[in-house]
Amino acid sequence: MSGPARVRMSPDSRREQLLELGVRLLSTRSLDELSIEMLAEAAGVSRGLLYHYFANLKDFHRAVCRRAADDLIEVTAPAQEGDALERLARSLDAYVGYVEQNYAGYVSLVRGAARGDEDLQAIYEEARAALTDRIFDTAADDAGVLGVFTLTDTPAVRLMVRGWSAMCEDVVISWVRESQAGREAVSRAELLAMLAAALPGVLSGTP
Amino acid sequence: MSGPARVRMSPDSRREQLLELGVRLLSTRSLDELSIEMLAEAAGVSRGLLYHYFANLKDFHRAVCRRAADDLIEVTAPAQEGDALERLARSLDAYVGYVEQNYAGYVSLVRGAARGDEDLQAIYEEARAALTDRIFDTAADDAGVLGVFTLTDTPAVRLMVRGWSAMCEDVVISWVRESQAGREAVSRAELLAMLAAALPGVLSGTP
Asked: CA-CA-CA-CA torsion for B1, B5, B9, B10, nearest 10 degrees?
């Protein structure tokens, strides 16, 4: 007997598909609004089936956040061409694009992490560390030169690069919120230029 | 008949005293750990009496956070002497001192705000706005000159000054955490110099 005509997905690809759907749902709503019921409806499957893939709501949220963080790291991967500063500018452009497209979910990841949810905090910290490490890796490709600035890997510089990434997060979230509310007083190009220029600026007082 | 020998406090000063005690308790524990019971025990009064001053735990937390934010704004008030950059440096010094002395409570205010508690968020945003406005006021006293930089009040500059304050918050919280764990790799003086230098640095790319 031949199998059923309906395509059966392997458990792994089915889980993949559900995660992608979860991330998509998260782009326009916060984590607190993202329920198993909502996913079941959007996927056209039963809640029971979902509990086959995710033990509970917390496990589902964690998996979706992990996927969203991986997506963020992937889309902001620096280009291969250009000097370190150009590559940084392109990463920033992708970061702003990511926050624009995933505003609600991104804000709720940042907040979920701040709220002290240990799993979300670990995912968030990992993503931030990956983005920060990348600054050093990108600069290292150009012998540490970032524009007019040479990046030396010291605890003080690490601390300030991390601070710069906190600044970018705050500024980009504010900018996207204002922009999506139709109150854009700063253009996207200006925003990108300011953030890129701020990195050597933030480091100008390091010993 | 004369009144009792025991000094009776007016309701206002009693509430004052309880708030100060609340802020003190908050310096070594998070908001979630700060209960009405704990306050009652520390104040040596009954829980019933406390409910006379604070309707419920949420009301108590809100009042304590409001007081903590007011304290922060007060202790970081810029000195009258010196040029804008020196006065900014002294404010930063006081800010680091405040976070050092109130680490647990300060972090929980920041987190409580991020968690989406609307009251805490409003208090936090007000404190941040006050600290940001002050940068403009201080610079204005020196005709907008901040070190080598002239501060012009535009939406782009506002956005980046706010970003600088998010950076300071992140960097100072990290630094105090490491320092209190005995892992201080950056001296306090270096930290202060870096944060002050970062302000004109952050603004270097503004149009």
From this structure: 10
